[in-house]
Hints:
By secondary structure, the chain is α+β, with helices and mostly antiparallel strands. Helix content is about 30%, strand content about 30%. It is built from three helices and five strands.
Amino acid sequence: MPENDPWEYSLYIPNDPRAVTVCRRTLRLILTMHGLIRLVDVAELLAAELVSNAVRHTKGPAALRVRWAAGVLRIGAWDADPSPPEPPQPFDRGVDREDGRGLAMVLACADVWGWQPLAREGNRGKYVWCELGTAPAAGPARRAG
């Protein structure tokens, strides 16, 4: 499959912290098989943060979604809680903390991020996503929402 052809994968996971590792390894395999190894390290970090938040802050199942289209990699995590994610906190607040910095890392590493509430077939939840482009941008474009 040529690198420019669009594709999408979804991995549904239980509410289990071990699922974060499963998602990271699955994402690495997907990107490697599609010739996008140059994006693996940052993509794994971003996916781990998004999925970790979904597992840590909700009680239900979650999903990792990965999509490639038009030179942009979109990584997202769905969870069953429709509440908006906490806004990213600056890194300089509580540098020694091991939690609460996930979306700040997403904001710092992704080209764009956002979230949207979801309601399908009676199920509610949210989808938090970020994007990585393959070409260097003239200046980082950041948005939420």
